[in-house]
Amino acid sequence: MMYKILFLCLPLIFIFFPGEEMKPFKLKGLAQGTDYTIMYYAKDSVATKSGIDSLLAIIDQSMSLYRKGSLINQFNAAEKQIKTDRFLNDVLKRSFEINADTRGIFDITVAPLVQAWGFGPKATTTEPGETEIKSILKCVGMQNLELKKGIIRKTKPGIQIDLNGIAQGYSVDLIADYLTKKGIKSYVAELGGEIRIAGPKPDGTPMKIGIEGPDEHDEPAIRHIAVLNQGAITTSGNYRKFHQSGKKRIAHLINAQTGYPLENEMISVTVYAADAITADGYDNALMGMHLNEALKFVEVRKNLEAYFVYHRKDGSIADTLSTGFRKILKN
């Protein structure tokens, strides 16, 4: 098990070279239970750590389950509805779109199941039984939510939402917006492994992102180098967050349709899309599919590409890429 955790702990690695015309600047900090790293080129340090921290704090007030009094916690505690802010409204709108496109695989009403399996804000030491899961499933399903004119409403009592599968990608997009408004045209912004890129670098060369995968001996190695000037790359996997129950590993990604943690061949999915909210939302959905289904899903959708790491039937680790993902790789 330790091999699998180490193998994918850092799936995305920056490869960044100083430009000749502008100076490189680097910002690092902690936010949303993880860390962030921002590298950008400018004549002066126009983007600041305090500016990024303030932005992420505002986002937390809207969508963090760990922030007391946040809008998302207000909604989860509400009997029927609340008025959203622009952050919550943006993420909810995109969540509905991805939910419909994935036929319910991506579902933000999974919150009570996430909590029951011990991955929510409240500590728990027991696994839910079949009866409890069946009871919780009665309060799961985005068909029980309505978003209209800035109001998010429950059409059924007990519905609660968890935006952890998409909000971090959205946060990276907001960081990108912040940098752009500062006049910055070349940057790599990363938050918790979710990345947004803009380029080229001042010397005219594209940005490069290293992507880890298994070599011929199933050892971790940089398998691919993505070369691009625009877009987002995010990763979802079952290798970081899990519980051990005897010899069984319980993954943190929960199937909203069955109520149980995902059990398929997927280890991780890395998605490339135009923006991070899209990549982040779809990487979770693709983790919930079988490999062939996920590959077909990506191949028929424009501006959505993916890199998959998975278990073969014999237990060995392998990887594969969608056709479009291959096109952004360095030959």
From TrEMBL:
Swiss-Prot/TrEMBL keywords: FAD, Flavoprotein, Magnesium, Metal-binding, Transferase
EC number: 2.7.1.180
Top-rank EC class of the record's enzyme: transferase
Reaction(s) catalysed (UniProt annotation): L-threonyl-[protein] + FAD = FMN-L-threonyl-[protein] + AMP + H(+)
Statement: the UniProt record of this protein carries the keyword Hydrolase: no
Record note on cofactor: Magnesium. Can also use manganese.
Source organism, top-level taxon: Bacteria
Binding positions for Mg(2+) per the UniProt entry: 165, 280
Keyword rRNA-binding: no
InterPro entries: ApbE, ApbE-like_sf
GO MF annotations, alphabetized: metal ion binding; transferase activity
Cofactor: Mg(2+); Mn(2+)
PANTHER family per the UniProt record, alphabetical: FAD:PROTEIN FMN TRANSFERASE, THIAMINE BIOSYNTHESIS LIPOPROTEIN APBE
Similarity annotation: Belongs to the ApbE family.
Protein name: FAD:protein FMN transferase
Species of origin: Pedobacter petrophilus
